[in-house]
Design brief:
The complex is a heterodimer of chains A (181) and B (616). Chain A is 63% helix and 18% strand. Chain A has a domain of 57 residues: Head domain of nucleotide exchange factor GrpE (Nucleotide Exchange Factor Grpe, Chain A, domain 2, Roll). Chain A is built from 3 helices and 6 strands; from the N terminus they run ααββββββα. Chain A starts with a helix and ends with a helix. The radius of gyration of chain A is 40 Å and the shape is elongated. The longest helix of chain A has 89 residues. Chain A is an alpha+beta fold and 181 residues long. In chain B, the strands form 7 sheets. In chain B, strands 1, 2, 3, 4, 10 and 11 form a 6-stranded mixed β-sheet that branches. A 5-stranded mixed β-sheet of chain B has the order 14-13-12-17-18, sandwiched between helices. Chain B has a 5-stranded mixed β-sheet with strand order 26-25-24-21-27, with no helix packed on it. Chain B has 616 residues and is an alpha+beta fold. The longest helix of chain B is centred in the last third of the chain and has 31 residues. Chain B has 16 helices and 27 strands. Classes of the chains: A alpha+beta (181), B alpha+beta (616).
Chain lengths: 181, 616
């Protein structure tokens, strides 16, 4: 083997080694890519789960604050009722007591109105399960399916049913003997 | 995205649907905004079909054409006769059930914002083949491909993830509104084997309510001589009050049933006010509860197991919230009782998990670990400052910026600890390292970013970087999440037990840190301003500083210390402002030191303990 040949040989070998190295780098790179993609995916998933946990905590805290604010709106009514009773026990003046309670009731209505709450109409209305809940069905001379009595008022809040009215519904007149036949 | 398979608990009184979202079951709210839907179907006079809450509301006006509890008829060929406007038609139980399923399907579609065509539906373990087939057919009529029918107790076990545990025998105690079931299952390798099942198809929460109503009627009759059962309006109010009293007694020892103007007689309006204690309520329903325990015993006998052979009890149905029910079961079966998941929703949740498994969704989602305990670093005064809170899903990365506690501090020591205690020394030490070669700077100026990075294997990498020089140091902690369950439990318990005293200690140390920083800032401001501070002011501040120093060395109480801090802070405010104005024209970095005279350290500017702690 000549020195030159020897050199070429070495060169070739280096070249091969180099290309092998390159190839191994090439094969390593998708692997690395996969690894980093999986890591990204897992981090994204973990972040989503941590976000869900945080959202849950935050919504619980938020709910507390909402309840707080509603209670704050109603506390003045409670205070005023307390004042009414205190005044009654000190002066025994029933007339002013009734007037006071009437005013507190008006205040109560104001608070409810401000919250978008309105009563569900039942007088001269036909029964509608979207708005009303039937507690009783009784024969009467009122047209069948009409509401004849309200047991408990219902309320809408911004057109959504907050509580359905509990009502008694007419069955119409009981069938007479002839009609039965 | 793969099509979702929803899970449906098609119950006798109520139904519930759920879907797997991001690996965990979510209950689907219906069009009425409720999480459960009454299993009631009705046909109105106009031929309109009503399902759920609306059907329930009109049931009394339309009893012939309202169908409740159709589940009891599944698998029979009893036709349901409906007559609308004189026109009679027959429906099979499958058809009626399909109407409930159709509503649940429509609500699920509205919730998910897409078509739903596949479902897993649950049935009682005692359902025979024809009942199961009928349930499947109901699904098909509703336009659902029923991917699988599974047993209700199996679904409950799935919701608790019991299929992933070791082989075990569980007892599912399902006390709903109107039915009661007990099942004993053997679970192993994802296979559920029903060993025995028994129940009482006419026992549930409604019976408990009735007992309270009866008692109220009796008491009122004794007090006033008036029979409330003759007054439908009063009875309705009693029913609602009885149910809420029952619910209240699950969390309180006593409740007051208050029904003003319940009725009236010749003498005027009558009010009802009765106190009901938990003990009294329990005695009212004692025989009913005894019946449930008898069924448990019968089921145990049938399965040839005894109480000691049950590894776990799973509670299903709203009535299992009653403390006495839980007490009776745990005294009968001393094993572990699972009741963390809402008992009204646990079956639907389990069905949704089964749906997720069938859809391949569960395989796709690698279940990620969580950090069992909080990971913190030690900051000034030995406080453990959390970077990653416990129960955080990993892999995750969190960072916080800290600063030095001394002037010209050349290095900081990062001490990583694990646990829920406020003081670093009470937690488990995971490792320490130093970040050195911090260029000389007044304390509070260097910004050191500390990054906690936990990879999916639970290995924690902590890196600290000096922002000014970008020089960093780090440590890798292999076993940040590798703790015994018992160790974790012990550490959590300890933290709970010491919560109050730990909080006090931490508050005191924080106040001491604040005092220390305030003295530093005030002295610095005075030396910066020199002659510009008038001598009266100077001596006032010096006096306040002396007092605060005394308090610090005397280890006074928190309140005392706070007062002294407040006093110095007030006295030095004026010169702080002056110093700030002096510094304004100069601008630049020196602002930070002077303006800090009256400011507390910011959230992200906590002090790391000086590594070479110069002795005071």
């Amino acid at each position: 083997m000549t020195a030159k040949e020897d050199k070429t040989q070495t060169d070739k070998q280096t070249e091969i080694e180099h290309s092998l190295e390159l190839r191994s780098e090439e094969t390593a790179s998708p692997e690395n890519e996969l690894r980093s993609t999986i890591d990204r995916l897992q981090r994204l998933q973990a972040e989503f789960e941590n976000y869900k946990k945080r959202a849950l905590r935050e919504s619980a805290a938020y709910e507390q604050r909402v309840v707080d604010s509603v209670i704050l709106d109603f506390l003045p009514l409670y205070d005023n009722l307390q004042r009414a009773f205190q005044s009654l026990s000190s002066n025994h003046d029933v007339e002013t007591f009734v007037a006071g309670v009437e005013q507190i009731f008006a205040q109560f209505q104001q608070v409810l109105e401000a919250k978008g709450i309105e009563p569900i109409e039942t007088k001269n209305q036909s029964f509608n399960p979207v708005l009303h809940e039937a507690m009783l069905s009784t024969p009467s001379d009122v047209e069948k399916n009409m509401i004849i009595e309200e047991f408990m008022p219902g309320y809408l809040r911004d057109e959504r049913v907050l509580r359905a009215s509990k009502v008694s519904v007419s069955q119409g007149l009981p069938l007479s003997e002839e009609e039965h036949e | 995205m793969k099509e979702k398979i929803i899970g449906i608990d098609l119950g006798t009184t109520n139904s519930c649907a759920a879907v797997l979202e991001g690996g965990s079951p979510e209950i689907i709210t219906n069009a009425e905004g409720e999480r459960i839907t009454p299993s009631i179907v009705a046909f109105s006079d106009s031929g309109e079909r009503l399902v759920g809450r609306l059907a329930k509301r009109q049931a009394i006006t339309n009893p012939q054409n309202t169908i409740a509890s159709i589940k009891r008829e599944m698998g029979t060929d009893h036709p349901v006769k409906i007559s609308v406007d004189g026109e009679e038609s027959d429906y099979t139980p499958e058809q009626i059930s399909s109407m409930i399923l159709q509503k649940l399907k429509a609500d699920a579609e509205a919730h998910l914002g897409g078509k739903v065509t596949k479902a897993v539906i649950t049935v009682p373990a005692y359902f025979n083949d024809s009942q199961r087939q009928a349930t499947k057919d109901a699904g098909v009529i509703a336009g659902l491909e029923v991917m699988r029918i599974i047993n209700e107790p199996t679904a409950a076990a799935l919701a608790y993830g019991l299929d992933k545990d070791h082989e075990q025998t569980i007892l599912v105690f399902d006390l709903g509104g109107g039915t009661f079931d007990v099942s004993i299952l053997e679970i192993g390798d994802g296979v559920f084997d029903v060993l025995a099942t028994d129940g009482d198809t006419r026992l549930g929460g409604d019976d408990f309510d009735q007992r309270v109503i009866d008692w109220l009627v009796d008491e009122f009759r004794k007090d006033t001589g008036i029979d409330l059962t003759q007054d439908p309006s009063a009875m309705q109010r009693l029913k609602d009050a009885a149910e809420s009293a029952k619910k209240e007694l699950s969390s309180r020892m006593e409740t007051t049933i208050n029904l003003p103007y319940i009725t009236a007689d010749a003498s005027g309006p009558k009010h009802l006010e009765k106190k009901l204690s938990r003990a009294k309520f329990e005695s009212m329903i004692d025989d009913l509860l005894q019946r449930t325990i008898n069924v448990v015993d019968a089921t145990l006998r049938e399965s040839s197991t005894d109480a000691s052979g049950i590894d776990q009890v799973v509670l299903v149905g709203g009535s299992t919230r009653i403390p006495k029910v839980q007490e009776l079961i745990s005294s009968r079966i001393p094993g572990k009782t699972s009741r963390e998941i809402n008992p009204d929703e646990v079956v639907a949740a389990g069905a949704a998990i089964q749906g997720g498994i069938l859809a391949g969704e569960v395989d796709e989602i690698v279940l990620l670990d969580v950090t069992p305990l909080t990971l913190s670093i030690e900051t000034l005064g030995g406080i453990a400052t959390p970077l990653i809170e416990r129960n955080t899903t990993i892999p995750t990365e969190k960072s916080k910026t800290f600063t030095t506690a001394e002037d010209n501090q050349p290095a900081v020591q990062i001490h990583v600890v694990q646990g829920e205690r406020k003081m670093s020394a009470d937690n488990k030490s995971l490792g320490t390292f130093q970040l050195t070669s911090i260029p000389p700077a007044p304390r509070g100026i260097p910004q050191i970013d500390v990054i906690f990075n936990i990879d999916s294997d639970g290995i924690l990498h902590v890196t600290a970087t000096d922002k000014a020089t970008s020089k960093s140091a780090s440590i890798t902690i292999q076993d940040s999440s590798r703790l015994d369950d018992s160790d974790i439990e012990r550490m959590r318990k300890e933290a709970e037990e010491h919560a109050d005293e730990d909080k006090k200690t931490a508050e005191l140390i924080e106040a001491r840190n604040q005092a220390d920083q305030l003295i530093y800032a005030a002295e610095k401001a005075m030396s910066d301003l020199g002659e510009k501070v008038d001598s009266a002011k100077r001596s006032e501040i010096e006096d306040q500083i002396r007092q605060l120093r005394d308090k610090l060395s005397q280890n006074v109480e928190l309140e005392d210390l706070k007062q002294a801090i407040e006093a110095l802070s007030k006295a030095s405010q004026e010169i702080a402002q002056q110093a700030y104005q002096e510094a304004q024209p100069a601008g630049g970095a020196s602002d930070a030191t002077t303006s800090s005279a009256d400011s507390e350290p910011e959230d992200d500017g906590e002090y790391i303990d000086a590594e070479y702690d110069e002795k005071e």
